[in-house]
Amino acid sequence: xxxxxxxxxxxxxxxxxxxxxxxxxxxxxxxxxxxxxxxxxxxxxxxxxxxxxxxxxxxxxxxxxxxxxxxxxxxxxxxxxxxxxxxxxxxxxxxxxxxxxxxxxxxxxxxxxxxxxxxxxxxxxxxx
Length: 128
What we know:
By secondary structure, this protein is mainly α. The protein is about 75% helix and about 0% strand. It has helices spanning about 1-10, 15-25, 35-55, 60-85, 100-125.
């Protein structure tokens, strides 16, 4: 029960992440999608859909959180991991960075929560 409330609160906080992202220009939650604004909007929409599914059917919270966390982990690996492992020519320029501070914060925040949700979701689904 605690995990479901925590996940619902996390998806509910998406509105704060959207306001900070588009209102203040500080992208924390979806920084790995910074180069692709359309995908970033779609990701926020996906998070709101997850919240809606959890509110509509609380019994689905574990399944929704598990699936969304897997999507987030894959997106983080593709969005951040590949850029670090396969650097482009742009990073060899003067004062260039592989990752921004926002992307590192996003990777830690989203990665930790996604991993937590995924592992606990799998355990919970296994015990059913």
